[in-house]
Amino acid sequence: MDKPSLCAIFGGMKQDADILIVGGGLNGPALALALAQSGLRVTVVDARPAPARAQTGFDGRAYSLALASKRLLNVLGVWARIEDQVQPILQIKASDGHADRGAAPFFLHFDHAEIEEGPMGFMVEDRHLYAVFLAEMAASPGITLLSGQNVVSQDIGANGVSVTLASGDTLSARLLVGSDGRNSGVALRAGIKRLGWDYAQTALVTAVSHPLPHHGIAHQFFMPEGPLAILPLHGGTRSQIVWSEGAARATAIQALDDEDYLAALRPRFGDFLGDIMLAGTRFTYPLQLSLTNSFTAARLALVGDAAHAVHPIAGQGLNLGLRDVGALAQVLIEAHRRGEDIGAADVLDRYQQWRRFDTTALALGMDAVNTLFSNDNPILRLGRDLGMGAINALPALRRRFIRTAAGLDGDLPRLLRGQQI
Ligand SMILES: Cc1cc2nc3c(=O)[nH]c(=O)nc-3n(C[C@H](O)[C@H](O)[C@H](O)COP(=O)(O)OP(=O)(O)OC[C@H]3O[C@@H](n4cnc5c(N)ncnc54)[C@H](O)[C@@H]3O)c2cc1C
Asked: Would you report the helix, strand and coil content of the chain in percent, each value rounded to 5?
């Protein structure tokens, strides 16, 4: 990749790019592709060397992407390149469970056939998604990707921004976007505060293989210690596990060897897919809720985990991030077409207004669901069983849940409706 020119500069002088994106995880590349499609010049800086992440072996990381996120990826030209490696989620079954007794008979059941738009979500493996993001960015003349480069400081001026890399080089643009994850340095340096709390839970993430086919069914078992999600992967006989446990217990489980780890998982998982075997690397993620008190500052916007990190109970983190991407891209491209300054406060306000309420509502919703379900209190258990029974009995309410899971509710940006901006 070419080294950037060093024209760090404000006020009418030449800038390296229109938009400088710090963070090339998943939301950063998606935003870069959306902006470049409309002729904006984008530089993406990522601390990780691209080859370190772009490995081809399966490591167990996968995302459930809502139908609306699929539509965005489709417009960006990404979906066509991963389509034959994704697993549609055709049904979701949720039930109470106990470690020693397995899952109770399911008490919530969503079937994609209840909405006309198609499968409500898709399981996509990180290795496929990231590799295509890299290839599409490399093929886009409007995007410069600088991998293995750490941003260490930023300066915000009246007409532009500049950042300094650990190498000492500087880059400039009209707008700075932080997509640098849940410990966002861009947000921190801009004085944007975060609120949130630690769940004292850790997610154990891996993949298993099983002799019986999953038929595209996602399962969520609500254990008192935390939810266990079993998510169907491409091929029919592998599933991803997102297994939330109290932090101390998760540390102990992660320290076990593979056989003992499986011995701890099996009673929770049950035997409905036959005897399970490990089929991916074992990861742990401490779970936190973290929301910034603003999505924007002077000449700066945040997207994805940099703005919000939510509990993975409903697999919504990346989906929320892609909603940010869709909204910010639309606001910036429309402003650019009208000849407005894309870093102006009133332009960035439109993005903030669009996204902040939606995100806070969803994050707190996930938090409430986690509290309600990671609990063995008999009164809460009765309350939630009655509530779930009501949902099951009311097709209109159930359809509403399915549409929410598919990401189809609310004021959707054009990309999430499958339309060009
Ligand atoms: C257990 C678990 C399961 C999940 N499952 C799902 C799911 O099923 N569906 C779903 O939608 N979401 C899911 N999520 C959430 C999802 O993984 C995240 O929302 C998503 O990966 C965030 O992407 P991002 O691009 O915003 O941030 P990240 O992927 O964290 O990327 C941030 C990037 O910024 C770079 N960076 C950081 N600092 C600097 C710097 N100073 N200079 C340059 N670069 C920098 C880093 O190198 C990194 O590449 C899950 C999360 C967890 C923990």
From this structure: 40, 30, 35
